[in-house]
Structures are given as structure tokens and as C-alpha cells.
Amino acid sequence: MRLHRWQFGRFGLILLALSFVSSSSRCVDGAVIGLFPSADNSLYFESPANSNGAGNALFAGNNNNSHARRALLAFDIAGNIPAGATITSAELRLSLLQAPPNLSETAMTLHPLTASWGEGTSNAGNPGGMGILAAARDATWVNRFHPGTAWTDPGGDFNPLASASAPVGVLGNAVWTGLAGDVQNWLNGPAGNFGWLLLGDETTNQTARSFASRQHITAALRPRLTIEYTAVPEPGMWACGAGGLALCGLRRARKK
Description:
By secondary structure, this protein is of the alpha+beta class. It contains 3 helices and 17 strands. The N terminus and C terminus are likely disordered.
């Protein structure tokens, strides 16, 4: 069978690419990691000295008396993902523990925090919706670190522009997607990683939800941030992606 010149050229290029793939060359595929929070806490509007740093649950939204709760969550990104990696996706999953006795959904939003905050040993027990007097270095409605380091704005210093929104019902899990940008920023600049503030509907009564915290006795219910990323290839390694080994060799051939 005769090959046209363009056919031979294309076939030859693939063979050339493969010839550059030595036994010491490896392709780098994407990786997936799941992280529990490094810290979490809840803020209570009507009890500005209360907290729940070591408690079983996190709270966000308005209670029956239209008093707001806000949840804080932070994750150690730089300590678990290689520097220089590209974050391709990130989603946060929270397990719902308790909701008002109605079937309506409520939108809850995640906002990047702009200041550091603390998680102390306060434990409001179960269900914990009213909080308990803060322990040393707990975050409260007025303080980033109890008893003396205040938020600039009571209720938490955070970006008013939400990074993600999710409808939260009365059963199961709540999942926020589209968080890759925040995670990438925190990987590139760990000093600015203060985590997220979870904001519920604070215009209506009985919108509060409780979610399992990182201290929940059942590990499967704890908050989980699932991140997909591609690491920077080491010498002799190439990011192949869907192209497979041939593309890996082709990239190496072009590099040479």
C-alpha cells in the first residue's frame, strides 16, 4: 500500500515521538485529594461572646428568633498540595444534621475570609445551637480570637462577593462547587488562606441549618473539600493528560 507524503509524515512524527520515550520517562496525570478542615467554628449574633470551637456541629442561617449564625471553615491547602500545582476543580461537601421542620430549600453562600481567626476548646454540646462561652482564642461574633482580638466588622471579615452558592434542604449533603479559584489563590499565597465563611439567609426566620463539624464522632460526616489538581512535572516527567504516552513523547521531542 502506498502512503501519500502527508500520511507518511504524520506517521513518522508519531514514531519519532515514541522513540523519545525512554524507560526513565513517566507521564504525570491529575491527582485527587480530600481534606478535612484544619479548623472550624460558629458565630452567634445574639451571644457575641459565645462560640463552639470543639463542638459537634456548625451553624449558619437565622434561628426562630431571627438571630443569625455563621460558620467558619479553613483547610490546609499548601501543606497538602505541591507548590506550583494547577487546581482544576474543588468542591466542599457538608453533612446536614438538623434543619427547620419545613421542606423549603434555602440558598447558602461561601465567602473567602479576609482575616485570621481561631478555634478553641469551647463545646456547646448537642445540638449546640446557642453556643457556649468562648474559650481562649475562639472566634466569636465580635472577636477573631477571644477575648481581645476583634474583627474589623462584627460577624466576620469576609469578601461580600460569594465564591459559590448551593441550595440546602432538610436532608442529606450540601455541596458547593466552583471553588478552584479560591483554592488556587491559597496554594499560591498561603499567607492569605483564612478559609471560608458560610452565610445563610439572614432575612427570614427559621433558615438555620446545622452541619457536622470536623470534630463529629462519625468521620464520614465531617466536612470534606475534594480537590483535583495537576502537579508540576519533575525532570523526566511530562503532563500527558488524555494524550497518553505518545503525546508525552511528542512533547518531549518538541522540547528537545
